[in-house]
Amino acid sequence: MPPDIRALAEGITRAFNAGRTGDLAAFYAPEARVVPPGRPAVIGPDGICGFFSDIRAQGFRDYAVEVGDAFARDGVWIASGRWRLAGPGPEGPHQTFEGNWLNVLEPGGSGWRILVHMWN
Question: What global pTM score does this model have?
Answer without folding.
Answer: 0.91
